[in-house]
TrEMBL record:
Residues 1-18 form the signal peptide. PROSITE patterns: TPR (PS50005). Pfam families: CarbopepD_reg_2 (PF13715). This is Carboxypeptidase-like regulatory domain-containing protein. Keywords: Signal, TPR repeat. It comes from the Bacteria. TPR repeats lie at residues 343-376. It comes from Maribacter confluentis.
Amino acid sequence: MKSFLALIIFFSSLTVWSQTRETEIKGVVTSYGAPLPNANISLKGSSSGIQTDSNGKYAVIASPRDILVFSYMGMKTVEIIVEDVTKILNIELLPVVQELDEVTVERKKLKGQESMAIEYATKKSIIRTAYGFIDAENAGYEMNFVDGASINSSAIYLADALIGVLPGLRRGDGNTVLLRGGGSLENPRPPIFEIDGVIFTETPDFLDLSSIDRIAIIPGLKGSIKYGNIASGGVIIINTKGKFLKREEGSDKPYDQAKLRNNKYNESMATSSLKRSDPIYITKMDEALSNNKLMEVFLEQEKIYGSSPYFYLTALKHFNEKSTNDFIGQIETKLLQKFEDNPNALKGLAYLYENQNRVGEALSLYKKIFVLRPRYTQSYRDLANMYVVNKQYQKGLGIYARYKSFRKLDTIAPIEDGIDAVMDTETTNLMALHADQLSISNEDRIDGDIGGIRILFEWNNSEAEFDLQFVNPQARYFTWSHSLENESERIYDEKIKGYSCKQFLIDETQEGVWKVNLKYLGNKGFDPTYLKTTVYYDYGRSSQKETIQITEMSEKNINRALLSIVARNKFGK
């Protein structure tokens, strides 16, 4: 008991020390992709603050667990909890709509998203995009709109239905289309398509033409402002019927799309064709013809990119199966020496160790992270889990129990599907599968068989935002969104408690192939995010097994295939 109290006092002193460290945080504040000058940035609870410059840039001094408040007249206020690794915060502010009783308000040029969502069903000049609603009356650039009822729904190909209806559209090679101004006459660039928020680089001929509600065209140069160079040929945005026309009962939230449209998933809805090419430093190292030359090129590139831990992590992930242990070892040593106090970098390396079954080395890293972040719930969970993976079951159970004692001192209310649910699930599973090693008596034993498949997602950067799309064997899908816009309460809970994970349980009675797709939305910085996906089969049973997949999230706003899972009904024949 004395040792436990001493440990709590030690943790408390570490927490106080970590909260007093000040650091400079930089970034850009934007609205609809444009810099926002004179936006206000302040520490919550403080009367002083600063403003962004003419380019929307700012720099502010803050400490871990401070709350930075970003505000601007007529915009929704954004609050971000500062962490020990926070250096870059690029913030997007969106307009807010104020409802005034018996007052008619003139339409603003930048109309709020909530207002456009309400008017969407009755106003055909509003289109829903991956970046929010756009109203042609307030877009600030040319847009052409077509009502879905005016196209020929009996056409065989989408190109046949659109040509002659959409202004400036002509046929390209095969069933492709081209927009006026898309590239040059000698080198025309085809437009990209966005259908209900999903981007396609090829003409989506799979689309049921009768399901089209409305279509909008953004010319090439204007489209590339929002979508990047892939849209230099323009953007054709298609909204299908039923989207955002109904609200959940007793709520102002849009009705779930799968319920509303009885939505069927199509393989073309997820693509990895836009996956970015390898960084230039990887390309240059790949060209090395010998290990000596490889190290020489690495040292050259290190001078340019060595300030980022992801230079080393990307090299380790890429060359793990292609190079000598000596080369890999030198990179790991450099990473550990340069970024020994960066928990995000250490966690990314721990993910790679786990994926390579180097569980002892992963355990050492999680111990270091625990010391760096003693108040983070994720530190407890990761350390306990890695003790279990290393078959040190008693130590693992001790960490889980220590967390519960630690949480009794915390007044923050738990969220059922948050870290507390993860910890409870894993504690129960540990006690059920390893009762003998834990000396649990027969009368105290529990059943850890929760049934089916458990999927655990973990990410090393807590600012990461992304969507996970789950497609069941009947090709019906639902989406879990980890973003400030859609899950602000959960993200606040994650920041307060200090965790970055989410578990899902797959019902094994739905036998067949499940698919999981990923759309990365960014992390308010420039570095990528590492996502660790662990799939447990027969969870809680003696036959339990698992697989680990590490994904570097970098390309944004692309719905890409992440993994496929085969579920077998244990109650079936």
